Amino acid sequence: MLRLITSAQSLGALVRDERKSQGLTQIELGKMTGLNQTTLSLIEKGKPSVQLQTILVLLSALNLNIQIGTREQSAPNEDRW
Predict the structure, then answer these.
(1) Is the pLDDT of residue 78 over 90?
(2) Taking Cα atoms as reference points, which of 5, 62, 9 lies closest to residue 33?
(3) Are 51 and 39 in contact (CB under 8 A)?
(4) Which CATH number covers residue 26?
(5) Phi and psi for 64 in degrees, rounded to 5?
(6) pTM to 2 decimals?
(7) CA-based radius of gyration for the chain
(8) Number of domains in the chain
């Protein structure tokens, strides 16, 4: 699976979709990562005030990687962080 992440909201959606595809609840994922359910809920809703280390722990628990590459020409209305 390769998805383009352009915002906190798209990252949150990816986390939510992957968690659900693995059949995990937020509470179960929280036990795996040491994060509470409220934090996971905020991440999945795309709240941008989360530490990078928290995202890395979460992605690791879901067996996901971050891959960085050169951005292609973006559409005028695309998020630019």
Answers:
(1) no
(2) 62
(3) no
(4) 1.10.260.40
(5) -115, 155
(6) 0.80
(7) 13
(8) 1
Burial label, 15 (beta-carbon count in 10 A; 0-12, 13-18, 19+): buried
Domain that holds residue 47: 8-61
* pLDDT for res 80: 55
Residue bearing the bigger pLDDT, 67 or 43: 43
In angstroms, the CA 42 to CA 69 distance is: 27
pLDDT per position as a tens digit, 16-63:
999 999 999 999 999 999 999 999 999 999 988 889 999 999 999 999
Alpha carbon distance 72, 32 (integer Å): 35
The three-point CA angle 49-42-45 to 5° equals 105
Rounded CA-CA distance 78/61 in Å is 29
Helical H runs in 1-81?
8-21, 26-33, 37-44, 52-61
Look up tokens 């906190």; give the residue.
Answer: 8
Within-domain flag for 48: yes
